[in-house]
Specification:
With 406 residues, this protein is of the alpha+beta class. It has a domain at 85-255 and 298-327. The protein has 11 helices and 13 strands. It has helices at 5-20, 24-35, 71-84, 102-107, 109-129, 182-202, 214-226, 241-248, 288-297, 318-327, 370-379, and strands at residues 42-47, 54-58, 89-96, 139-147, 153-162, 164-167, 170-173, 230-238, 261-264, 269-274, 281-286, 307-311, 353-359. The protein has a 5-stranded antiparallel beta sheet, with helices on both faces. Strands 2-1-13 form a 3-stranded antiparallel beta sheet, with no helix packed on it. Strand 1 (42-47) and strand 2 (54-58) form a beta hairpin. Helix 1 runs antiparallel to helix 2 and helix 3 (71-84) packs antiparallel against helix 8 (241-248). The protein is globular.
């Protein structure tokens, strides 16, 4: 049988839950991955009226972490975003947080994600609005990633930046293919993040990891304040379409797609990755529990957008974008809606007609069940403390019923 994320979860998630528990976000993601494209979620049925042939397609879960059903939604996002891009060179800027903050991130995921977006966007917009560098309003497209190629925890944000901006009513391109001095960019980004981090801690908005004392907190602050933070500027890329296409691969589907999984046994999961040091494709082996833990590290916070737009790329800046296109001599193209090809009968070739839609009988855990589930975890000794490899994403842990479980 082909190894997939769904099959690995089906075989190992129950054991993982018994030892580590799941946060609410992890529970939703695991439930969705397990049930995606199964009859439990319902199905659509088509029929050929000429020869009676019938086809059935199970519903998809549509969860951001599921690698089985992301294709159509990713394609739609890619088309909309590429149509929004301005006809100019673009630069890609990658902002990475120091690894000393990884544990803090796991206990403050919403705050850290939002402020990584905010710090990177404000840094770029403020510097490029300065006449010393560009003196114009630019467009930014930001995408948050939390994983490395081996599924390790590596929070960073990719920002696609227009190679020019709107100064008053006129388009102003960057000079000599030079966006910004990277040293200034690093210093401003680091200053913003540390200022907000200190303010949030003082206001009681941050939750420290259980093994962090106030002295450990001060030590981490001293360490990261002395480091040179990792910020890279890449580009320019013609029109930015290539970068958007790259980012679309990480928009949905979680940190690993099924085609990268080589094999899975009760003892070991093997998957492919490309080593960025030498560019070679390699294989990594992990135990099923380690593999599941790494996948669950990267479940997004419910309601938190993984892609955000700023400046000229916001929805409200459509008139500005059209003004720039007019100045650059670009003819506006009419939007064309792409439609999926009609289903055809494999026997006679005639169109298939949609016959019915069946809704699944699975009911997801609701908020009203939290107290009961929390009590079960507190009473049962099976919920062991989380290992260091898999820090909790919230203080609340609970269990879900797996398909086929008693």
């Amino acid at each position: 049988m082909e190894a997939t994320l769904q099959s690995i979860f089906r075989d190992g998630l129950e054991t993982y839950q018994e030892h580590h528990g799941l946060s609410m976000d992890q529970s939703r993601a695991a439930q969705a991955i397990l049930l995606c494209q199964t009859e439990a979620l319902g199905y659509e049925e088509w029929i050929c009226f000429d020869d009676g042939h019938r086809e059935q397609q199970n519903h998809s879960c549509r969860h951001r972490s599921c690698p089985r059903c992301h294709g159509a939604m990713t394609h739609d996002w890619l088309e909309r975003t590429q149509a929004r891009l301005l006809p100019c060179d673009h630069y890609q800027v990658v902002f990475t947080l120091p690894h000393e903050l990884d544990a803090l991130w796991q206990y403050n995921r919403q705050w850290c994600g939002d402020h990584l977006f905010k710090a990177s966007a404000e840094t770029l917009r403020q510097l490029l609005a300065d006449d010393k560098y560009l003196g114009a309003e630019v467009g930014l497209l930001s995408a948050l990633h939390t994983w490395g190629r081996t599924l390790s925890f590596h929070p960073h944000v990719h920002v696609l930046v227009t190679g020019g901006g709107l100064a008053g009513e006129q388009w102003r391109p960057v000079k000599n293919g030079y966006l910004l001095p990277v040293g200034v960019l690093k210093a401003k980004f680091r200053g913003k993040w540390l200022s907000w981090l200190n303010d949030a801690y003082a206001a009681g908005e941050l939750k420290l990891p259980p093994d962090w004392t106030p002295e450990r907190w001060r030590q981490v602050l001293r360490t990261i304040s002395r480091k040179r933070w990792n910020v890279r500027i890449q580009g320019g890329y013609r029109h930015g379409h290539g970068v958007v296409n790259y980012l679309s691969r990480y928009l949905r589907g979680g940190p690993i797609k099924d085609h990268r999984i080589v094999s899975a046994t009760p003892e070991q999961v093997s998957f492919r990755y490309r080593d960025h040091h030498d560019g070679c494709e390699k294989t990594m082996q992990l135990s099923p529990m380690q593999f599941i833990a790494r996948v669950l590290w990267h479940v997004p916070v419910k309601g938190q957008h993984g892609v955000r737009y700023y400046g000229l790329y916001t929805a409200g800046a459509a008139n500005k974008r059209q003004r720039i296109k007019d100045q650059l001599g670009v003819v506006a193209e009419a939007a064309t809606a792409t439609q999926a090809p009609a289903r055809q009968c494999p026997l006679c070739g005639r169109p298939l007609f949609h016959r019915l839609s069946v809704r699944g009988q699975i009911s997801y855990l609701r908020n009203t069940a939290r107290a009961t589930v929390r009590g079960h975890v507190q009473q049962g000794a099976q919920a062991a403390p989380l290992p260091q490899e898999s820090p909790a994403q919230s203080s609340e842990r609970f269990f879900i019923a797996l398909p086929g479980a008693a």
